Amino acid sequence: MNDISQASASAFQLLISGNNDIWEIISLSFGVSFSAILIATPVALVIAFLLAFFQFPFRRALIALFNTFMSVPAVVIGLSLYLLLSRSGPLGDLRLLFTDKAMIIGQIMLSFPLLVAMAHASFQAADRRAWETAITLGATPARAFFTLMYEVRFGLIAAVVAGFGRVIAEIGCSMMVGGNILHSTRNIPTAIALETSKGEFAQGIALGMVLLVLSLSLNAGVSLFQGKGELQA
Amino acid sequence: MSHLIDYKNLVVTLSGKLILNIDSLSIPNHQCTLITGKNGSGKTTLFKVMSGLLKPDSASIHYQGLDMNWKQAKPYIQKDIIYLHQQPYLFDASVTYNIAYGLYRAGESKTAAHNKVMQALDWANLSHLAHRNAKQLSGGEKQRVALTRARILSPRLLLLDEPTASMDTDAKQQTSLLLQRLKEEGITIMISSHETHTVEHIADRHLHIDQGRITSLDHSHSEKVTVLNTSKYNN
User: Fold this and answer.
1) What is the rounded distance in angstroms from the CA atom of residue A152 to the CA atom of residue A126?
2) What's the pLDDT tens digit per position in A39-92?
3) Structural contact between residues B223 and B51, judged by C-beta atoms closer than 8 angstroms
4) Which of A9, A179, B47, B219 could form a disulfide bond with A98, CB atoms 3.0-4.6 angstroms apart?
5) B87 to chain A: which residues are within 8 Å by CB?
6) Domains in chain B, number
7) Which three-class secondary structure state does DSSP give residue A162?
8) Tens of pLDDT, residues B88-106
9) CA distance B219 to chain A (A)
10) Res A67: pLDDT
11) Which CATH number do you get for residue B82?
12) Pick from B48, B92, B149: CB nearest A137
C-alpha cells in the first residue's frame, strides 16, 4: 500500500514538475489521436448519413460490416497494418512502419467503424422531416446535410467522443505499428505498459492519471452539452 | 384558365405496391385546390412527388412552357414549390432563424434577411415569438411559423399536408386566416385535409384521391379539371 502511495505521489510530482519525457509522450499521444479522429470523422459522418438516408446495393451488408469491425481487437488491426507496411508488405516502400503516421493510420482504422456505426444510429433516429424541410426550403443537399448534423449533434458528438476514447487508450495497434520508440512513437498506453514492466510505477501512474482525467473531462463535457440540449427541447 | 404546372402519367410504386397512378393533374394558377382522401390514399406521396422530394417511377411535367421529365424538372420545382408536413418540422433554433433559413440558403445578407423576417413575423402576428426556441412552440404556433417561413420565400405553389390537423378551434381559425391571406397574395395553394370544413371556404376546387387515383368532386366550376385515370395499373 505504501508503495502505491509513494508511486502516486511521485507521479503527481512528475506531472507538476513538467517532466519533459512525460509531457512529450502525452503530447504525441494526443497529437496522433486527434489527427486520426480529425481525418476519420468527416468521412465517417458522410458514410453514416448515406447508409441511413439512401437505399443502394449492399447497404445492409456494409452496416453489418461496420458493426462487426467495431469489435475487432486493436492488436488485430495492428497486425494487419504491420503486414501491409512491413518492408516485404505491399505498402513497404512507403516506409511508414514505426512512425507516428503509421499510428495515425492504425487509429483511423480503429475509430472509423465505431464512428460510422454510432453516427449511423444517430442519423437513423433523426427525424426525416428535418432533411425534407431543409430541401424544400431551398437548401442544397450539402447544406441540408449540415442542417441535419446540427439537429442530431448530441448523438454525433457522443460518437466522436467514443471514437477518441477508443483510440487514445488503445495499445495493441500503436505497439505493433509504432514500435514504442522514445521521442518518436511512444504514446501514453505503450509507455504505461513499458514502465510497468520495468517496475517504474510512478511514470505509469502519472500517465494513467492523464487518461483518467481526460476520460472524466470528456464525459463531463458530453453530459453538460446533452443536458443543455434536453433543457432546450 | 392558365395552369401553373401540369403533371402527366404520374406513377409511383413503393416496395412493389402501386401508390399513385395519375394520368393527368393540372394545378390552376392563383387558386386553392383542396384534396381529400382516406389515410394511405396517396395524398402525402403526391405532395412529395410534386415538390421534388420523392422520385416517381414515371412523370411528365409541363412547367414554365417546357415539357420535362421529373429529373429535368426537379431543380425548378424544388425552387418554386414548398411542401409543409402535416406536423411541420422546425429546426432546433429560434423562430427567427427558422424563418430566415430559406433566405440564408438563397444568399440573402444577414441584415436583409433580418428585416424580411421581422416584417414576416409582423405579418403573421408572431413577433412575440421571435426569440423563442421553435421546439417549444405549440402545434398551432409551429404551423403558423412554418407557413410564414414558406411565404417569405415567395413560392409559386404551396403544398399543405393537413394544415389544421390536431389543433384546437382557436389555432384552426388562426391558421385558416393565414391560409386565406396567403391565397389573397396570389400564392397557388394545394391543401390536403380530412377536416374540409376548416378550409373549404378557401378552396376553389375539390379533388378526391382514392387508392392513388384522383377524381374531381368539383361541380360548381365550369372548367374541366383534367383528372383522368388509366386502367393499365388497375389490377
Assistant:
1) 6
2) 999 999 999 999 999 999 999 999 999 999 999 999 999 999 999 999 999 999
3) no
4) A179
5) 129
6) 2
7) helix
8) 999 999 999 999 999 998 8
9) 33
10) 94
11) 3.40.50.300
12) B149
Q: Which of A215, A200, A153 is closest to A6 using CA atoms? A: A200
Contact B133, B93 (CB under 8 A): yes
Asked if B31 and B62 touch (Cβ cutoff 8 Å), the reply is no
CATH topology of domain A22-227: MetI-like fold (1.10.3720)
Contacts of residue B88 in chain A, CB cutoff 8 Å?
129, 133
Per residue in A198-229, pLDDT tens?
A: 988 888 999 999 999 998 998 888 888 777 65
The predicted complex's ipTM stands at 0.89
Quick one: which H or E segment has residue B150?
helix B139-151
Q: Are A212 and A138 in contact (CB under 8 A)?
A: no
Instruction: Establish if A136 touches chain B: CB-CB under 8 angstroms.
Output: yes
Query: Which residue in the set B91, B102, B105 is minimally distant from A151, CB to CB?
Result: B91
The domain in which residue B16 lies consists of 3-90+140-216
Out of B79, B89, B150, the one facing A127 most closely (by C-beta) is B89
- CB distance B215 to B207 below 8 Å: yes
Which of A13-17, A35-39, B27-31 has maximum average pLDDT?
Answer: A35-39
Comparing A4-13, A155-164, B59-68, B185-194, which segment has the lowest mean pLDDT?
Answer: A4-13
Residues of B with a Cβ under 8 Å from any A Cβ are 48, 51-53, 78-79, 81-83, 85, 87-89, 91-92, 101-102, 105-106, 133, 135-136, 149-150, 153
A150 CB near a chain B CB, below 8 Å? Answer: yes
Name every residue whose Cβ is closer than 8 Å to that of residue B53 and which is 6 or more positions away in sequence.
Answer: A132, A135, A136, B83
Q: Say yes or no: B97 and B62 in one domain.
A: no
Task: Indicate whether B174 belongs to any domain.
Answer: yes
CA B48 to chain centre: 9
Question: Contact A162/A114 with Cβ under 8 angstroms?
Answer: yes
Do B42 and B119 belong together in one domain?
no
Domain spans, chain A:
22-227
In angstroms, rounded to a whole number, what is the distance separating the alpha carbons of residues A175 and A185?
9
